[in-house]
Amino acid sequence: MPIGPAAKPVRSMLHASVTSLPSSIRNIVQMSPIHLLFGVLSITATLHAEDLTPTNPAADAGTYISGSLEVAPFVPPAPVEPKRPLTDAVVTTVLVDKDQKTTILQRGQASMAPDWIVPQPTLDTPPIQSTFPTRQIVTIQMGATVYNHRVSVVHWQHPVSKKPYEAVIGFDLGLIAPINSFIRDGVTHHTIILTSNTDTNSPSVKRAAAHGHPIEVPEIEPDAYRITRGDQDDSVGLAPLLALYELYLTEKPRLEKLRDDLAVRNAEAKAWADAHPTPPETPVFWFKPHRNSRYLTDQDKANQRQAAEERAQQEEAEQP
Predict the structure, then answer these.
(1) pTM for this structure?
(2) Strands 137-147 and 187-198
């Protein structure tokens, strides 16, 4: 198994893992449900095949990521108008919890609004014909524990046998986390990546080390990888890692710029939030009883019938 940047072997192995599968195995991959297991040390990765997705001309231009990775500038959010208590409430209940936080619950006057009508599909609507060529879709789900944004211990599963795999890679897998999809060799790859970074210089990590629980960071060369669990000769099992590895090698400058731009925008957003703390307010929840509600009085029901008759007359008058 090669270690470090090996573009051609990686490409050939990954291509073989997709195209050389027997039809029975491809069907299994297609029909298997994908389950994302949330956890730092045991997040899985699977591949799933589907059809009907748009083509991506950018894939033929030497890039795997379609579109721009430009980060939009931070824009302060518009102020939210707080929900005011009803002035004509029928019943008002004030709740105070053990922390002395107040919540107001109100029942207002009966609603005169019409019932919601779910539109029914018309029979004369022609079916939508897709003009996009069919293409296989692969979904990669992977989790990683990252150390100092430099080394990642990644975990995934074999796409067919579900056996666990693990590898150490010499870069931060979080660089790829913002990327939702990319195209390689005519195959669309959707990515779901969860990472957590551990700063070995943080006070909590140092305290743990002082009490006999040090964190051991695996040693590896930058931009290299090493398989630590799983069959190193199984190209299908290695396909999820190798797809992301080649994406990283190809798009490294763009991914690093995206990381830096996101850090700047997040810092601006945090500075604004710190300067504009949300003032405490009393939550208000209110509802207006509708038709068939047990809270309706006889007069409410009569008013609702009258409102419905007036709407029907108005709709009849508006018809040509």
Answers:
(1) 0.61
(2) parallel
